[in-house]
Amino acid sequence: MRSVRELMSTEVWSVTPSLSLRDALELFAARHVGGAPVVELARVIGVLSMSDILSFQASTPVVPRPEPDGWGSEAEPPAAWEEGEEPPAGYFADFWTDAGGDVLERMEQTGGPEWDLLAEHTVGEAMTRTVVAVRPDTPARAAARLMTQLAIHRVLVLDGDRLCGILTSMDLVRAAGAGRI
Length: 181
Prior knowledge:
The structure is a single chain. The chain is α+β, with helices and mostly antiparallel strands. It contains 9 helices and 5 strands. Strand 3, helix 8 and strand 4 form a beta-alpha-beta unit.
């Protein structure tokens, strides 16, 4: 019977809770990984996965920040309109607290928070705080069963408090494909 130690990846990329979600996403893409442990002061405090980032983005409303004073101050008050009539363009300005700027100019400026929510928030805000871990001597089959029961794609491998590896669903698929389990 194979142990987790024989199948786990020992090269583990971790992230810190203060890292922006944008930077974490770029790290995941560059390393071709779908998640990583969150480590602070040499202690594992959570896990961040692509699913966590997607869930965070989907559940967080994007609200533009107010711009510096004076931006849009020359805008005319929205025109009144009656139900059934074509709404004036000013009607749509009510959706933004910083309304009044030229729409074309706003659309060309893609660096604002309304365009990059992930750069404005941190790993600590989106991570899963529950750490699912196994010991290196855990049978691989038991780890796979745990991952299946919890519907997760990775378990951390801890020896005491020390992070010594990670076992992912891809590690298990590779081992099965090679006939090692």
